[in-house]
Write a structure and sequence with these properties.
The chain has two domains: about 5-125 and about 300-325, Medium-chain alcohol dehydrogenases, catalytic domain (Quinone Oxidoreductase, Chain A, domain 1, Alpha-Beta Complex), CATH 3.90.180; about 130-265, NAD(P)-binding Rossmann-like Domain (Rossmann fold, 3-Layer(aba) Sandwich), CATH 3.40.50. With about 325 residues, it is of the alpha/beta class. The N and C termini lie close together (about 10 Å). The strands form three sheets. Strands 3, 4, 5, 6, 7, 14 and 15 form a seven-stranded mixed sheet that branches. The chain contains ten helices and 15 strands. It is about 25% helix and about 25% strand. It comes from Leeia aquatica.
Length: about 325
């Protein structure tokens, strides 16, 4: 039984070849002046967690070495400079790390209230996805009203919320997914067209639709050249991952002729100040959509936090539609 000074958390065993995940008792963090201590109800599982586990995603300076970048839970302590939250408040939060644990500290300015109508657990599925969309499509790609968007991985934990958000905002949306069931789900979430990339080349479908203004790409590899051809003049291609390979061919002639922008975007490395501005914009723009039902929870499966290994296995199977969550309750 953990004491007031300890907690259980998932630890990566770097001594084992598979870097196994262990549920261990460790010291409980204490909030700095600008932080709150959250008793974790649920934590979102993201691909970066697996990459970090395997040593392929460096932890930012000063961040917790523990996995997990988004949680929901109850505020149980506040730093001396925190005025916007009180003990007992229920929040969801974007983290630099540390979410795979019974308790975690979070910057108070990156905490948000649980949307009306949402469960405490389901709210843990929101921060990473919403901040990624805000950072990628609005802060970097400068998405304008009515512009069309191609989103790869529409059934992913990020994709399911990106589709709902942009559909509610009135954008024509196109997406790809790995099977017909996932494509059907994407259509229900607001996509105008969803292409099964296991069976079809997506490019003729987008060409027939007349091309797009913006691409949110988590594939990279051979897709990059196709995106240049599919983008309208002035189009933007935002790369947030490279699951299809880190090397791509770029047609500089197309870049110049169509005045295209091709850039990479990461969220975790953004400054706290930028994340605070994102949080403010998300609260203003997206929270009404969450609370009036235009954006609905998309949680595929829930696992006890102690079974994080099972959740990572499910993540790598790519069969889920929406988010995978780890639940702190009953994990011990």
């Amino acid at each position: 039984m953990p004491s007031m000074l300890t907690m259980h958390a998932i630890i990566v065993d770097n001594r084992s070849p598979e870097r196994s995940l262990r549920w261990q008792e460790i010291a409980r963090p204490q909030p700095a002046p600008h932080q709150v201590l959250i008793k974790v109800a649920a934590c979102g599982v993201n691909r970066m967690d697996h990459l970090q586990r395997m040593g392929h995603y460096p932890v930012p300076d000063g961040a917790s070495p523990l996995l997990g970048v988004e949680v929901s839970g109850e505020v149980v302590a506040c730093g001396t400079q925190v005025s916007q939250w009180q003990v007992g408040d229920l929040v969801c939060a974007l983290l630099d790390g540390g979410g795979y644990a019974e308790y975690v500290v979070a910057d108070a300015r990156l905490c948000m209230p649980i949307p009306i109508g949402w469960t405490l657990e389901d709210a843990a599925s929101l921060p990473e996805a919403l901040f990624t969309v805000q950072n990628t499509l609005y802060d970097h790609a400068h998405l304008q009203p009515g512009e069309s968007v191609l989103i790869h991985g529409g059934s992913s934990g990020i994709g399911v919320y990106a589709l709902q958000w942009l559909a509610a905002a009135g954008h024509p949306l196109y997406t790809t997914a790995g099977n017909d069931e996932k494509c059907a789900a994407c259509l229900q979430l607001g996509a105008k067209q969803a292409i099964n990339y296991q069976q079809h080349d997506f490019t003729p479908f987008i060409e027939l639709a007349g091309g797009v203004d913006v691409v949110m790409d988590m594939v990279g590899g051979d897709y990059t050249l196709s995106h240049q051809r599919l983008c309208h003049t002035g189009g933007r291609i935002a790369i947030i991952a490279f699951q299809g390979g880190r090397h791509s061919e770029v047609d500089l002639g197309l870049m110049l002729a169509k005045r295209l922008q091709l850039f990479g975007v990461t969220l975790r490395a953004q400054s706290t100040e930028r994340k605070i501005r994102m949080a403010q914009q998300i609260r203003q723009t997206v929270w009404p959509m969450l609370e009036d039902g235009r954006i609905k929870p998309m949680v595929h499966a829930r696992y006890p936090m102690a079974d994080a290994e099972q959740a990572h296995h499910a993540l790598l199977q790519h069969r889920h539609v929406g988010k995978l969550l780890l639940l702190s309750k009953g994990a011990a």
